[in-house]
Write a structure and sequence with these properties.
The complex is a heterodimer. Chain A is mainly alpha-helical. Helix content of chain A is 71%, strand content 4%. In chain A, helix 1 runs antiparallel to helix 8 and helix 3 packs across helix 8. Classes of the chains: A mainly alpha, B alpha/beta. At the A-B interface, helix 6 and helix 7 of A face helix 2 and helix 3 of B.
Chain lengths: 295, 250
């Protein structure tokens, strides 16, 4: 019973982070058909913002807000400076640009900060646990789930109730037609990148919370996770991104829990092997919207 | 109102328009007809800002709009109902209409427009909260037209409005087009269904191989024996001198 509860808590907390990351990735993909490989670096930027604010007298929540804002700004600026000039050229140009931006951010961190891990400040609450029927549940995990639910709810309201949100959904479905209704391309893309940065910045707080440190290469794992989750859920669907996030967490935690001890080192190979198997049977992802992809 | 002069356009290496010149006067219903690949939809794409013309001029109400972004062109008063209707299937009918009114900021005005749309398209009102993807083909066409009208266009562009619709629904859609035209709306229509197009249009352009081959009243074009032939891409247009006002430049 306790094991089952631990399993559920693990899947939900990890899945929440995966889902938010995947959502940020798929939001941009939906509109530009660009898998933004510089997306993981937003987590790094949020991390270094926390690191640089370490020791300042402001409360942690203010530092966290600054970190999230830094991720949002970095995301929007990346679009403005790097992606916009090549947007009309080709998808390949944008893809290569995203690799370039990723490398640039990582090397800037190596050069100006350090290749070694740097400590990020965390609130005391993050290292505390609740004891539920003999099970230690990290409060950080519970906050992650709660924050995810709040963000998903806010996101749902935005996408369904506001004109901008409706335009975002429309643009993710058919960008050309959305523009033909007068929705400015730059506005929609900037908003998508801003939301994407907001999601990555929020995930960063919890992602960094696991090790309490940040390195220049920290963005790679969340990027891969987000990418796999979106592919698993269906690249064309925002709901799919969330479903994919939780599904990937279920697979990862499941394999961690049930794999014999000798094979635990290979858990990622098993997890991604399983993802490949699922995609062999459902190449369109778990959530299929029935839409044709655009050219 | 709208004037294209010697417009050339291409998709990559494929030349799609070879000097197209057409004009649409205020209050007019002009139809572009011709075979598949004649350049009709491409002509519309250059007007809507989706495809940048390589050369030539596109003027709308006196201003040059060639190469403007699609969103800028809507703001000038040109609304487009594309070939596959391109409604947003996951959005509700009302959300589709809301986006149609994106450039109109006044909420009270939007509410009034929505009421007018419900009165004109009662079936859409019934389906207001349904995802647009669940609508039938005819209803989707109505939605696409209603969505375009939400922006209060001065020029309405319709690309193949009868495509894929049952004959009864085609009549219905054309009934609507006639009504809009009678109300003073300027309309540029692309249609493969020549019979329908000739029935409603004030003036018709026959396109072929990226050029305007003939221009005139529906009666004139109906008389031209090669309309049907050109439409299927079989006959050559050698049945007489080209009509006056023919704007092809090569």
């Amino acid at each position: 019973m306790i094991q089952a509860l631990a399993f559920v808590v693990d899947v939900l907390s990890l899945g929440s982070l995966y889902a938010l990351m995947a959502l940020g990735l798929v939001l941009v993909y939906g509109i530009l058909r660009l898998v933004n490989f510089a997306y993981g670096e937003l987590i790094m930027i949020a991390g270094y913002t926390l690191y640089l604010l370490n020791g300042s007298p402001v409360p942690w929540l203010v530092m966290a807000a600054c970190a999230v804002v830094a991720a949002v700004l970095a995301s929007v600026l990346t679009e403005r400076v790097a992606f916009r000039p090549v947007r009309e050229k080709s998808l390949t140009a944008m893809l290569i640009t995203s690799f370039a931006v990723s490398t640039l951010f990582q090397n800037a961190a190596l050069l100006f900060i350090s290749p070694r891990a740097r400590v990020v400040p965390l609130p005391d609450l993050f290292s505390e646990s609740l004891v539920v029927g003999g099970l230690f549940v990290p409060i950080r995990d519970l906050i992650a789930v709660a924050v995810t639910l709040i963000m998903l709810a806010a996101f749902t309201v935005l996408l369904n109730r506001t004109v901008l949100g409706i335009a975002l959904r429309a643009a993710a479905d058919n960008f050309r037609m959305t523009r033909m209704l007068g929705v400015p391309a730059n506005l929609i893309i900037s908003v998508a990148f801003a939301i994407s940065g907001l999601l990555a910045g929020t995930v960063a707080l919890f992602w960094l919370g696991r090790t309490a440190s940040v390195t220049p290469g920290i963005g790679l794992e969340p990027l891969i996770v987000a990418f796999v989750a979106t592919v698993l859920g269906g690249l064309n669907s925002l709901v799919g991104a969330v479903v994919g996030g939780y599904a990937l967490a279920l697979i990862t935690v499941g394999i961690n829990t049930f794999l014999p001890q000798v094979l635990v080192d290979y858990r990622q190979a098993f997890a991604f092997g399983l993802v490949i198997l699922i995609l062999l049977f459902r190449p369109e992802g778990l959530v299929w919207t029935g839409r044709h992809s655009r050219t | 109102m709208l004037e294209l002069k010697d417009v050339h356009a291409q998709y990559g290496a494929i030349v799609a328009l070879r000097g197209v010149s057409i004009a649409v006067a205020e209050g007019e219903l002009v139809a572009l007809i011709g075979a598949n690949g004649a350049g009709k939809t491409t002509t519309l794409a250059t007007v809507a800002g989706v495809l940048r013309p390589r050369s030539g001029a596109i003027r709308f109400r006196g201003a040059d709009i060639a190469g403007l972004a699609p969103e800028a062109i809507v703001r000038r008063g040109i609304a487009m109902v594309p070939e596959d209707r391109e409604i947003f299937p996951a959005l509700t009918v009302e959300q589709n209409l809301r986006l149609g009114a994106f450039i109109r900021r006044d909420r009270a005005e939007y509410a009034r427009d929505l009421d007018a749309t419900w009165a004109r398209f009662p079936i859409l009102r019934e389906r207001a909260l349904q995802p647009a993807g669940t609508l039938s083909g005819g209803e989707q066409q109505q939605l696409a037209i209603a969505r375009a009208l939400m922006s209060h266009p001065r020029l309405l562009i319709l690309d193949e409005p009868s495509l894929g619709l049952a004959p009864k629904l085609v009549d219905q859609v054309y009934g609507l087009i006639k009504k809009l035209h009678a109300g003073g709306m300027t309309i540029l229509l692309v249609e493969q269904n020549v019979t329908q197009a000739l029935r409603v249009a004030d003036r018709v352009y026959l396109m072929r191989m990226g050029r305007v081959e003939a221009e005139g009243t529906p009666e004139y074009l109906r008389r031209r024996v090669d309309v049907e032939g050109a439409y299927f891409g079989k006959a050559t247009a050698n049945g007489g001198p080209p009509p006056a006002g023919h704007g092809g430049a090569s």
